[in-house]
Design a protein that fits this description.
Elements: H1 10-21, H2 41-50, H3 62-78, E1 88-92, H4 95-116, E2 125-129, H5 134-142, E3 146-150, H6 164-167, E4 172-178, H7 190-204, E5 210-213, H8 221-224, E6 237-243, E7 255-259, E8 271-273, E9 280-282, H9 292-330, E10 333-338, E11 344-349, H10 358-366, E12 374-376, E13 385-390, H11 397-418, E14 438-439, E15 442-443
Parallel strand pairs: 2-3, 2-4, 4-5, 5-6
Antiparallel strand pairs: 1-7, 6-7, 8-9, 10-11, 11-13, 12-13, 14-15
Helix pairs in contact: 2-9, 3-9, 4-5, 9-11, 10-11
The chain binds pyridoxal-5'-phosphate (PLP).
Pfam families: Pyridoxal_deC (PF00282)
GO molecular function: glutamate decarboxylase activity
Keywords: Decarboxylase, Lyase, Pyridoxal phosphate
């Protein structure tokens, strides 16, 4: 806990740190995270070449800055902005920073509106489902906005249009709609939420913008569900965020925030700095950031293009759906989500199962190295504890098969040990093989 008095040889320091890190979990077996845990060697080489660059030094590293700009334009087009070259956007450290920026823009716009109408601003509130990721609760607390969380109810595990009327008023700075809930990977109905807000505006005159938290979904839906209406095609959607380090296929940590147009972002949130040479508009919470992640994102977009990203995200989906079917067939598990929206499988124990919990399943899987989180759902459904598996690029059909074997074995073991009454898969019944990642001569994961 203290800085050592003496220096040591680099090799010795390397060994000490390296050996200690062996006790960390294996990132590839971490089925809990949405974050990318595998990239190609070419991407790693580019990241290595850019490690010494600071992304904020735009004047010094103009090509890195140009790559960031191109990524913003690509995302604006992917998310169907009416004028993609007029969008404002930036890279961030992840979706959390993007959420803070998007929330701040909503807050400033609301305050400007209230002031120009000569109305007392009052205390702002932000409406969202109780399923939102913690970054939105942080935004509300850090920036003094009342979080209005629409609770989950039986069978409804994310925000829908129904209760919006009861939660929105003249002090609502915006509604957050999540494309790809962290809890179960489900998509909120952004289009129906927008329509409900249109109706609210017709009735009351209150015009409430929508921000889409597409941390995962904004990099999945455009390729797998291109006809799903959730992005800038909906006029009420003013901004979108995504994590480049999730389904954008880049190692942590990079995120993106894109606003519909320049008018959406208040001037006062853009800072001009001149001490790096030239006049630089900056929008962001932090200043220095690694350039390597921006370079890696540009590589991923260039490398895979539409067809590659479609192929990878579809493959994740087919593995997730096959995994869901097999998990349901084991016996004591019921699916909450089956991987058909985000490639995420969420499941819980059937009410008849006794003697062990999902927390025991999670702990016992860990003995084999698998990291599968078990957690209870938020307010109103805290009675329900689930396990979640995120199928990401690099989680091959072969790895999924090994995971299933272990899950069956762990379930058998817990059932025998604790005498559960559930009936497991009939003896001798063979599980179906999962789709292989190595098909058609194209190996996409190591
Ligand atoms: C829906 C959603 N929003 C925001 C975040 C925060 O993202 P990040 O880890 O990129 O800050 C997550 C992370 O899982 C998420 O699932």
């Amino acid at each position: 806990m203290e800085l050592p008095e003496e220096e040591m040889e680099p090799e010795a320091a390397y060994r000490l740190v390296h050996d200690e890190l062996m006790l960390d979990g294996n990132a590839r077996l971490n089925l809990a995270t949405f974050a990318t845990s595998w990239m190609e060697p070419q991407a790693r080489a580019l990241m290595d070449e850019s490690l010494a660059k600071n992304a904020v030094d735009r004047e010094e590293y103009p090509q890195t800055a140009a790559m960031e700009e191109r990524c913003v334009r690509m995302l604006a087009r992917l998310w169907n902005a009416p004028f993609p070259d007029a969008c404002v956007g930036c890279s961030t450290t992840g979706s959390s920073e993007a959420a803070m920026l998007a929330g701040l823009v909503l807050k400033h716009r609301w305050r400007e509106r209230r002031r120009s109408d000569d109305l007392d601003p009052g205390r702002p509130n932000l409406v969202m489902g109780a399923n939102v990721q913690v970054c939105w609760k942080k935004f509300a607390r850090y920036f003094d906005v009342e979080p209005r969380l629409v609770p989950l109810e039986n069978g409804r595990y994310h925000l829908t249009q129904e209760l919006l009327d009861q939660y929105c008023d003249q002090n609502t700075i915006g509604v957050i709609s999540v494309l790809g809930s962290t809890l179960d990977g489900s998509y909120e109905p952004v289009d129906r939420i927008c329509t409900a807000l249109d109706v609210l505006q017709q009735r009351t005159g209150i015009d409430i913008p929508v921000h889409v938290d597409g941390a995962s979904g904004a990099m999945v839906a455009p390729f797998v569900d291109p006809d799903l209406d959730w992005d800038f095609r909906l006029h009420r959607v003013v901004s979108i965020n995504a994590s480049g380090h999730k389904f954008g296929l880049v190692y942590p940590s990079i995120g993106w925030a894109v606003w519909r147009d320049a008018e959406t972002v208040p001037e006062e949130l853009i800072f001009q700095v001149n001490y790096l040479g030239g006049h630089m508009p900056t929008l962001g919470l932090s200043f220095s950031r690694p350039a390597s992640q921006v370079v890696a994102q540009y590589y991923s977009f260039l490398r895979y293009g539409h067809s590659g990203l479609r192929r990878i995200q579809e493959r994740c989906h087919s593995i997730a759906r096959a995994l869901a079917e097999e998990i349901a067939a084991i016996g004591p598990y019921q699916l909450l989500s089956d991987g058909s929206q985000l490639p995420v499988v969420t499941f819980h124990l059937t009410p008849e199962t006794d003697g062990f919990t999902v927390f025991d399943v999670s702990r016992t899987l860990r003995e084999r190295g698998w990291q599968v989180p078990a957690y209870t759902l938020p307010h109103n459904r805290t009675d329900l504890a689930v396990l979640r598996v995120v199928v990401r690029h690099g989680f091959s059909g072969e790895l999924a098969q090994l995971f299933l074997d272990d899950l069956r074995r762990v379930t058998d073991q817990l059932t025998n040990q604790y005498g559960s009454r559930v009936i497991l898969r009939a003896a001798g019944q063979k599980p179906a093989p999962l789709p292989s990642m190595i098909g058609g001569g194209k190996a996409i994961a190591g």
